[in-house]
Amino acid sequence: HTEDELSRSSHSNPGKSLVNGIKTNPASNSPKSSLSVPMGPPVYVDLAYIPNHCSGKNTDPEFFKRVRASYYVVSGNDAANGEPSRAVLDALLEGKSQWGENLQVTLIPTHDTEVTREWYQQTHEKQQELNIMVLASSSTVVMQDESFPACKIEF
């Protein structure tokens, strides 16, 4: 379809709108339900970056049910925007609990945040039960005038 055809098709059907060329129902306009993604088998990867700085805007338990990683990177460091989101960290626990296999998962936070610390302490028993390890690193990389924490990942 050309851009004009896509535009016309959304105007000719006012009950529907287009998102990335897919017709969606505006009544279910939440980010988590706006696209109907067909179910399929889970995808196994070594490393997955939790989308949107671990914000709850578009990551839910379904992400963790379908994207099964040995390592998940949590990069959020903006409490004002809910990054990282406690709900997303809880979604990891919920999603992983439905894998049906007890594969080792390592969570790699790139920042030391209050949300991450509280989640770790409050859910530590559940993490152990689900074979989830949170990687804490005291390594620091120094480059010119900057220094920042670092983690080493081996595959």
Automatic annotation (TrEMBL):
Q: Name one GO molecular function term.
A: actin binding
The alphabetized list of GO BP terms reads: axonogenesis; dendrite development; microtubule cytoskeleton organization; regulation of microtubule depolymerization
Q: Where is the composition biased (Polar residues)?
A: 22-36
Question: Where is the stretch described as Disordered?
Answer: 1-37
GO CC, any one term: cytosol
Sorted alphabetically, which PANTHER family does this protein's record hold?
A: MICROTUBULE-ASSOCIATED PROTEIN, MICROTUBULE-ASSOCIATED PROTEIN 1A
Name used for this protein in its record? MAP1A protein
User: Which gene is annotated as encoding this protein in its UniProt record?
Assistant: Map1a_0
